[in-house]
Amino acid sequence: MQKILVARPIFPDVIERLQRYFDVDWNQGDVLSAQELKRRLADKDGALTAGDPIGADVLAAAPRLRVVSNMAVGYNNFDMAAFNAANVLGTNTPDVLNESTADFGWALMMAAARRIAESEHWLRAGKWQKWSYDGFLGSDLHGSTLGVIGMGRIGQALARRARGFNMQVLYHNRSRVAPEIEAELNAEYVSKQDLLRRADHVVLVLPYTKENHHTIGTAELALMKPTATLTNIARGGIVDDAALVEALRAKRIAAAGLDVYEGEPNLNPDLLTVPNVVLTPHIASATEATRRAMANLAADNLIAALGEGPRAGQPPNPINAEVIGRARA
Predict the structure, then answer these.
(1) Which listed residue (99, 262, 264, 308) is catalytic?
(2) For residue 329, what pLDDT is reported?
(3) What is the CATH number of the domain that holds 221?
(4) Residues 6 or more apart from 62 whose CB is under 8 A from it?
(5) What is the pLDDT at residue 25?
(6) Is the domain of 120 the same as that of 188?
(7) Distant-in-sequence, close-in-space partners of 53: CB < 8 Å, separation ≥ 6
(8) Is 264 labeled as catalytic in the residue annotation?
(9) Which residues of the chain fall below pLDDT 70?
(10) Which residues contact 129 (CB under 8 A, 6 or more apart)?
(11) Which of 230, 281, 289, 322 is close enough to 256 for a disulfide, judged by CB 3.0 to 4.6 Å?
(12) CA 37/CA 135 separation, integer angstroms
């Protein structure tokens, strides 16, 4: 029987599915250290991860490893050059979290715009003594301009929601989407600089790559309206968190909503000192239905990639499909 590692705690019924096909080593505790991850992968044929870094050193220490299934859409935790060199397949879990993540992005944007977290902290501190006409004045979403950076599946889901708020939609992407999608979403393709200047609410939904590192930094924040908000549901590192703190503190932008951070689960401690930012712990896809769908899709990918189950040899979501069928290098 082939051996796999499940590197994070997941739903027990998904483990039961995997146990029908594999000898499962299931980590039910804390995140594995790099050394422990290498040790436990040494005799494994496959692995199911959730953001665990897998680079050339890890692959070299696991000569039997043929597939790593990531329980996430993003896979910047994978060194794909090393995967390709070793003929190891990587897979991910797109689509199943689009709507839940878009819902959360919308909620985070609204919370930032309407100062919900800031006002709740003030109320909990016992400071609410009277109603005031200028108490916690925020900004409207209805009738405003939404700027989406990264018009993939989740970006398009956000743009669909904007129709119900009668918002103008601007977007920037590596390439324009199809004309029929632009028409459906009533979305205008613009440069990043133009989007930042014009948008009332900017939402980041682009994948993390070296090229996208600090897509939003000091220069970009300076282009935004002082009344604008910034929401990041993409990946940490896309925003220069230190530059954002300074912009929020100086009121160069009105507010921000963050679900992802540089170096998470650690975060820039200065973010905790500015009141006009809403902070959540990377939970944009965190509904039970969505997380179950992600876990089951990750299992589907792993089962099929290791030649088991009804889709044997045809995993649903290969990242580097060109290595399928090649011997491990």
Answers:
(1) 264
(2) 86
(3) 3.40.50.720
(4) 38, 41, 42, 43, 44
(5) 98
(6) yes
(7) 34, 77
(8) yes
(9) none
(10) none
(11) 230
(12) 51
Residue 328 lies in a domain: no
3-state secondary structure of 165: coil
279 contacts 39 by C-beta, under 8 angstroms: no
User: To the nearest 5 percent, what fractions of the chain are helix, strand and coil?
Assistant: 35, 15, 50
How many residues does the structure list for the chain? 329
* Assigned domain for 326 exists: no
Task: Read off the pTM.
Answer: 0.93
Structure tokens at 200: 């009332």
Q: List the structure tokens of 327.
A: 């011997």
Only one residue has tokens 């080593």, namely: 25
Q: What is the pLDDT of residue 293?
A: 98
Per DSSP, helices labelled H in the chain are 12-19, 34-41, 56-60, 80-86, 98-113, 116-124, 153-163, 179-185, 192-198, 218-223, 241-249, 288-305
Does 313 fall in a domain? yes
pLDDT in tens, 120-149: 999 999 999 999 999 999 999 999 999 999
Number of domains comprising the chain:
2
Q: Is 249 helix (H, G, I), strand (E, B) or coil?
A: helix
| Residue 313 belongs to domain spanning | 3-94+288-321
pLDDT at 143: 98
Q: Which of 153, 282, 311, 328 is catalytic?
A: 282
Do 259 and 136 have their domain in common? yes
Residue 113 near residue 238, CB atoms below 8 Å: no
Angstrom distances, CA of residue 320 to CA of 238, 301, 326: 24, 13, 12
Would you give the DSSP letter of residue 224?
A: S
Task: Please report the pLDDT score of residue 8 as a whole number.
Answer: 96
- The 8-class DSSP code of residue 216 comes to B
Q: Which of the following is catalytic: 201, 235, 252, 291? A: 235
288 is a catalytic site residue: no
> What are the DSSP calls for 175-190, one per residue?
SPPPHHHHHHHTEEE-
Q: Are residues 166 and 41 in the same domain?
A: no
Residue 327 located in a structural domain = no
* 147 and 185 within one domain: yes
